[in-house]
Specification:
Elements: H1 28-43, E1 48-52, H2 56-72, E2 75-81, H3 89-96, H4 100-108, E3 111-117, H5 125-129, H6 135-142, H7 146-150, E4 154-158, H8 160-169, H9 171-175, E5 179-182, H10 186-197, H11 207-222, H12 227-243, H13 247-264, H14 267-283, H15 287-304, H16 307-323, H17 327-344, H18 347-363, H19 367-384, H20 387-403, H21 407-424, H22 427-443, H23 447-464, H24 467-483, H25 487-504, H26 508-523, H27 525-544
Parallel strand pairs: 1-4, 1-5, 2-3, 3-4
């Protein structure tokens, strides 16, 4: 099985992204206060600092940025979130320090700080609207020595609103603080966050980086009122979910962005979303719907004269033809796309098309040409620092070595590719590698390992609703069963795979037919018919039982 999706199908081709060099985890507005907070934790054995920050997501980002550095200094952070059920903050903290989670941190780190959030949630609605004293917050003042008695440094997170109440409601608690660390107001943070996600084209190079960007977009969306900006944020957030394989979330966000773009009459926005919705549909094997959406996007891009968009749509239409075995049409469309990206000097597009042309040569058996084109693509993606593109081309070079019987080289390249895809959280790519490693184990006679890897791959593609991937792995499980002389399982798997391949009009349907024909010839017509009847009855029974 060769990979169906090369670098050109990266949904992030249609997004304004950060540069490849990752920005700091903290925005510049937070760096100074972040260092101040880290300095307190490095010297404090007890005591507490009051941390002022309005946005929960910002608090999360601040802690995420500090945790690795603190761990290097043998400091752990136990996080406790209060809610309206807390009758006493000191009591809630003391209980938390008896939990297994806290004990595990205490066993691992020399110092464990306690980060307390959610103090505002302990204040009732009546207390918020009256001039009274919130009971739980007032309780901090009545037990003013409790934090020192705990023997752990405390981070007490509050909003600007609660900060204004503390000196009046809990003056002794306020007076006993070690320091107040104040992070900037939300508007200033939003301005910096917007800069971070709008600073230019690039790719994310780790799963954590992708998650950080998701949090930034979520924060920006909460306060965004401009429809055009909101549509862009929704689209780019969808791209991140798409790249991580969270397809339901991606589709929902794309459709929200599309609705706004249509309302605004933004043809550029409409074309971008249609292209990426088509990519989801293509990845799940619905080629008819994907082709319709790509052609809709292509029509809009041609109307706009958007050469980049035209090249991307042509590239994906070429991949559709390629996936369905129409190599002449695929070559024609790849060449059209390649001419445009060369004229534009679009290195990402050039690398993606070289990769796909290599796959085309590979599928047609011209291995020397395929290897040359893969290495040309790889050189560009390495120059760009595009880890996703590098991983995909390494995967295909591994398939090439595998097809030529160089199993040691194939395994080395598969493993290199898999490590990168795991770092990126690329679920579809991980499934591809697991499938190929299973085939390698099968070809080398390690059937138990092959079966385990096939099932790991199958679980992922089923979750992604990748019909082509499901069919290919099911067919391979059939071949494995046939080698092990389990004819009933083999025929059942071949039949299931053929049904999906027929639906997709995939060239792999011919392989599934050959598998079934081979079984018929080996078993003889009578035995084969009997086995077919048993398999059909079993499959109908499974369908009837849901």
């Amino acid at each position: 099985m060769t990979a169906r999706h090369g670098p050109g199908q990266n949904p992030a081709d249609h997004v304004k992204r950060e540069t490849a060099a990752s920005p700091p985890a903290l925005s510049p507005a937070f760096v100074g206060p972040g260092k101040q907070l880290g300095a307190f934790l490095r010297v404090a054995e007890t005591g507490y600092t009051i941390c002022v920050c309005n946005a929960p997501a910002d608090r999360r980002r601040i802690l995420d940025s500090l945790l690795p550095e603190l761990a290097d200094d043998d400091i752990g952070v136990f996080e406790l979130e209060l809610d309206k059920s807390a009758a006493s903050i000191p009591g809630r903290v003391r209980v938390a320090l008896t939990t297994d989670a806290f004990k595990a941190l205490a066993a691992r780190f020399a110092t464990v700080a306690v980060s307390i959030t959610g103090a505002e949630a302990t204040i009732t609605a009546a207390e918020r609207t009256s001039a009274g004293r919130p009971k739980v917050i007032q309780g901090l003042n009545q037990q003013r020595d409790w934090m020192d008695q705990l023997g752990h440094p405390i981070l007490f997170w509050v909003s600007e609103w609660l900060l204004g109440l503390l000196p009046r409601i809990a003056p002794d608690f306020w007076a006993g603080r070690s320091v107040v660390v104040q992070f900037p107001p939300a508007d200033e943070v939003r301005a910096q966050a917007y800069t971070e996600v709008s600073s230019g084209p690039g790719t994310f190079n780790s799963l954590e980086e992708a998650k950080r960007r998701i949090r930034i977009y979520q924060d920006l969306l909460r306060g965004e009122t401009d429809p055009k900006t909101k549509a862009g944020f929704l689209h780019n957030l969808a791209v991140l979910h798409h790249a991580l394989g969270d397809l339901d979330a991606a589709r929902k966000l794309y459709n929200q962005s599309l609705a706004i773009a249509q309302e605004l009459g933004s043809k550029t926005g409409i074309a971008q979303v249609l292209h990426n919705l088509a990519a989801i549909t293509q990845g799940q094997g619905d080629y008819t719907e994907a082709r319709k959406l790509y052609n809709q996007s292509l029509a809009v891009n041609r109307e706009l004269g958007n050469e980049t968009g035209i090249a991307q749509d042509l590239h994906q239409l070429a991949m559709l033809a390629h996936d369905q075995g129409d190599y002449a049409e695929a070559r024609k469309l790849y060449d059209q796309s390649f001419a445009i990206v060369q004229e534009l000097g679009d290195k990402t597009g050039i690398a993606g098309t070289l990769h796909q042309l290599a796959m085309l040569a590979h599928d047609q058996g011209t291995y020397a040409e395929a290897r040359k084109l893969y290495h040309q693509s790889l050189a560009i993606t390495q120059e760009l620092g595009n880890k996703a593109g590098i991983a995909q081309t390494l995967h295909q070079l591994a398939v090439l070595a595998h097809d030529q019987g160089d199993y040691a080289e194939a395994r080395k390249l598969y493993d290199q590719s898999l490590v990168t895809k795991q770092e990126l959280g690329d679920k579809a790519g991980i499934a591809q590698n697991l499938h190929q490693l299973a085939m390698l184990a099968q070809h080398q006679g390690d059937y138990a390992k092959a079966r385990k890897l096939y099932h790991q791959s199958l679980a992922i593609v089923q979750k992604l609703d990748d019909k082509a991937g499901i069919a290919e792995t099911t067919a391979q499980l059939g071949r494995l069963a046939e080698v092990e002389k389990d004819d009933r399982t083999a025929l059942g798997n071949y039949t299931q795979a053929l049904s999906i391949f027929e639906e997709l009009k995939s060239p792999y349907r011919d392989l599934a037919k050959k598998d079934i024909a081979r079984m018929r010839e080996r078993l003889g017509d009578e035995a084969f018919k009997k086995l077919c009847d048993e398999v059909v009855a079993e499959m109908e029974g499974l369908t009837a039982n849901g």
